């Protein structure tokens, strides 16, 4: 499960990076008069969704790591008895 979450995190990070590139490109095209403001807004929306997804996955992975450390502590304590 944890390895799968790390793979999903890498995928979400790549999607976020791609969305950031698209958003920057849309802003450049708009500045040059080659795209509408709607294109820029759509790029910003896509980037925000990708960032939110990435942040949620990072949160889940942090919780899983925390649970692993707690479990490890319990196991170590039980082994010492």
Question: Would you give an account of this structure?
Answer:
This protein has helices at 2-31, 37-80. The chain is mainly alpha-helical and 81 residues long. The mean pLDDT is 94. α1 runs antiparallel to α2 (37-80).
List the keywords.
2 helices; 81 residues; mainly alpha
Summarize the structure.
With 81 residues, the protein is mainly α. Helices cover 91% and strands 0% of the residues. The mean pLDDT is 94.
The helix/strand series, from N terminus to C terminus, equals HH
Q: Can you tell me the residue ranges where pLDDT is under 50 for at least 5 consecutive residues?
A: none
Structural class: mainly alpha
Mean pLDDT: 94
End-to-end CA span: 30 Å
How many beta-strand elements? 0
- Percent strand: under 5%
The helicity comes to over 70%
* Cα shape: rod-shaped
Number of helices: 2
Largest sheet: none
Radius of gyration over all CA atoms, rounded: 20 Å
């Amino acid at each position: 499960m944890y390895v799968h979450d790390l793979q999903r995190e890498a995928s979400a990070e790549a999607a976020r990076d791609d969305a950031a590139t698209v958003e920057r490109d849309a802003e450049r095209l708009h500045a040059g008069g080659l795209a509408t403001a709607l294109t820029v807004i759509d790029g910003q929306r896509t980037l925000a969704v990708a960032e939110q997804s990435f942040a949620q996955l990072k949160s889940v992975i942090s919780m899983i790591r925390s649970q692993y450390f707690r479990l490890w502590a319990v196991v170590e304590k039980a082994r010492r008895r």
